[in-house]
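Appendix C: a fully annotated inverse folding record. The material below is reproduced so that readers can follow the format used throughout the book. The structure is listed first as tokens, followed by the designed sequence.
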């Protein structure tokens, strides 16, 4: 029975992604955010349980990719589409809006990243390229800024002049050959965990101070930290 537990949790991720997708297009944005974070929690938990139980299932690996494609591929694309659509049809979106469809480039590159991840043996402890859950948190953060009009930035985060470059940058980062650190701690000591500890403390501080506006900034810091860490690693060689 225990061998099915990780797969059940993965299916919760998939279920949450489907609910988040419907919520986005129904303009129930905070409901969508709730389901996104349930999906992220399930995505982390299924891996932890599989490793703790010593389960390595090909079926689980495939299910995980399918669930991630919905929760962290289609859903963020839908959010960006809705944010862009505000500029063209501010109330309801009865038909496809061509000017908003570039949002789904993030979906396309998320699919490419997930396929590459399944074949890449280098990403057991750290990542190569921006992980799809991190990309989704960044985009969910933009949705929260829009919904709450944090600091009067709702018009800014829906502007095509902001979103089109963001879409291109995120699409690039998803498949870039850029080493990104994971939050898996190497023991409980400071040495070897410095960047993780500093990043987590900064993230918690931002979450406490600016609340819903912090998520996109936290992921931006994650990317900046990874670039700096990569630069110093190359300089040390």
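Designed amino acids, in order:
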């Amino acid at each position: 029975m225990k061998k099915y537990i990780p797969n059940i949790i993965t299916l919760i991720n998939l279920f949450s992604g489907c609910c988040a997708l419907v919520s986005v297009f129904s303009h129930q944005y905070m409901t969508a955010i709730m389901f996104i974070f349930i999906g992220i929690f399930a995505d982390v938990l299924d891996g932890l349980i599989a490793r703790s139980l010593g389960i390595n299932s090909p079926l689980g690996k495939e299910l995980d990719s399918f669930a991630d494609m919905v929760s962290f591929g289609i859903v963020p694309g839908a959010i960006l589409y809705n944010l862009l659509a505000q500029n063209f049809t501010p109330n309801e979106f009865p038909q496809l809006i061509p000017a908003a469809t570039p949002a789904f480039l993030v979906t396309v590159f998320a699919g490419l990243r997930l396929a590459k991840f399944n074949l890449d043996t280098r990403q057991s402890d750290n990542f190569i390229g921006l992980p799809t859950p991190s990309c989704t948190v960044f985009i969910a953060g933009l949705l929260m800024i829009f919904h709450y009009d944090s600091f009067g930035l709702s018009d800014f985060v829906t502007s095509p002049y902001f979103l089109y470059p963001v879409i291109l940058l995120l699409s690039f980062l998803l498949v870039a050959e850029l080493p990104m650190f994971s939050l898996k701690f190497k023991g409980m000591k400071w040495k070897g965990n410095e960047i993780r500890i500093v990043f987590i403390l900064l993230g918690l501080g931002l979450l406490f101070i600016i609340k819903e506006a912090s998520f996109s900034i936290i992921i931006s810091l994650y990317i900046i930290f990874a670039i700096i860490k990569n630069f110093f690693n190359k300089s040390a060689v």
